[in-house]
Amino acid sequence: MARDGAPPKQVVLVGGSGFVGSNLAYALAQSGDFTPIVLDTNDEKLALRFGGRGKCAFRRCDVLTDGAVLEAAIEEADIVINLVSHVLPKTFLDNPLGVIDVTLHGSMNVINAAVRHKKRLMHFSTSEVYGKTGGSEAPFSEDHSDCTLGPIDNHRWIYSTSKQLLDRIIHAHGLAGDLEYAIVRPFNFVGPLMDWLDEGDGAEDAEVPRVFASFMSALLHERAMQLVDGGKSRRCFTFIDDATSALIHILRDPEGARNQIFNIGNPGNETTIAELAELMRGIYAQEAGTGRPIEIKDVPAEQFYGSGYEDCDRRMPDIGKITALGWQPQVDLQETFERSMRFCVDNASALGVAVSREAV
Ligand code: UDP
Questions:
Q1: Is 182:250 a contact under the CB 8 Å cutoff?
Q2: Which stretches make up the NAD-dependent epimerase/dehydratase domain (predicted)?
């Protein structure tokens, strides 16, 4: 029974067995107000988060090919959450057409079904939609900031562009009056089950996870942590439990959140990537008790990612809109990485390549 005595609302999380989806499904199940049903191509991370298979409703579904499964789940649901995405910068560079297929076309299948069945939609956009700062120090604002992207040759921006188009399509449905939605823009969420840890075999063609898992694998395998272009870029890292709490605030407030875009991030947790490398190295030495110094070395972006990469120099969220719904981030930078790293150290074998890379 929900807090207000009503039956829990049924929430279908499409693409919900990745890092954010698994943690969100767990938080929804704990809340008492919502019953999660996860649709995805596998349930590995979901099973890890819930402590076993079958503890959270799961239906196998590829959004590009399993239209009937998707349609039936959305028809039954009270709320639809769209998490369908390719989220790794390295994938944007290696497989830009795959990013379009999944992120754009896959998401359109979800959005169109939500419109057809008149279901409330929470859609995952990205802080990457804002692109580069263009030299401004102003935080990114949902309703005022420009989206500043590099040239087409720098195809890193294909993900940002796909997500921006989806935001505009959803917004247009809102204007047409046929969709109730909330769009959320995550600012570097970190925590248990993020990406994967590699086996340390140093394979040349290895995929590259985002910075947290990349540094964590380097520490576990005692090899150099690689700072792309010197690690000058800045990010605000947000602990996943803070993030899921913000998402639940939005779901509990349909009036306050109606047809709005929300940044979700922790402005107090800003760091350069170079400072992050030092922080993680220090925490690791403490947590794992190793005294051996791990090297931190610079690597040119072209060598690390290949051609077509361009970085977001800084991502600072304006969080006025989400804090107006009563949410505040609680977990500072040190604790964010201590908790995330402790989970990796304790679960290294379960988090290795055994966890499918499709599940990130
Ligand atoms: N980065 C790095 N070393 C790595 C992985 C990433 O220096 O092993 C940098 C990357 O160039 C970017 C920042 O870390 O400046 C964050 O990258 P991530 O892949 O986590 O995602 P982003 O925040 O860019 O979406």
A1: yes
A2: 11-265
CA 337, CA 219: separation in Å to the nearest integer?
Answer: 13
All structural domains of the chain with their residue ranges: 9-359
Q: Among 90, 103, 188, 210, say which to mutate for ligand 1: greatest number of ligand atoms within 8 Å of CB.
A: 210
Q: Enter the ipTM.
A: 0.99
Decide whether any atom of ligand 1 lies within 6 Å of the 235 Cβ: yes
For 332, counting Cβ atoms within 10 Å of its Cβ (0-12 exposed, 13-18 middle, 19+ buried), the class is middle
What distances in angstroms separate CA 277 from CA 125, 206, 272, one per listed residue?
Answer: 27, 21, 9
Name residue, tokens 């196998």: 60
Mean pLDDT per 10-residue segment, the chain (360 residues): 82 98 98 98 96 96 98 98 93 94 97 98 98 95 97 97 98 98 98 88 72 94 95 98 98 98 98 98 86 90 95 97 98 98 86 48
- Residue 132, token pair as written in the block: 């580069």
pTM, entire model: 0.95
Q: In the CATH hierarchy, which top-level class contains the domain 9-359?
A: alpha beta
Record the tokens describing residue 45, joined without a space. 């991370």
DSSP 127-171: GGGGB--TT--SPB-TTT---B---TTSGGGHHHHHHHHHHHHHH
**Residue 244 corresponds to which tokens in the numbers above?**
């899921």
Active site residue 159: yes
